[in-house]
Design brief:
The protein has three helices and four strands; from the N terminus they run αββααββ. It is α+β, with helices and mostly antiparallel strands.
Amino acid sequence: MGENSVENTIINVLKSHNISDNMESAARTDKYVSAAGNVFLIESKIDIIKILKILNSQIKDMYFYQYAGLSEYFNPRYCTLKKYSYVLDGDYDIEKFMVMLRKFEGTHDFRNFSRKDYRNTVRTIKT
């Protein structure tokens, strides 16, 4: 987690208001990549509406707008489905792009692009 990361910014705001720092996010983003729609879990006894108000008042370039109460522990990092949206800036032939993108559809093993550890590197991509 980088010093200026979105995750670090959220954790620092939560800590500054004595809210639990036990937070887990669904995904991290690379530099210059938006995390719109990212999901994270906060374990706290403080009312979630209060937490949303604190985050929205303290962090200017982000907006926190939805929440869900959970009856049992859920780790967003290991959810069963993640959806990524990409915005292309420029003049592109969208049909050619979609043809190329469809080549990634299906189930593939990404072990050559992953850290060598215990994690399953097989993923299914849908377009």
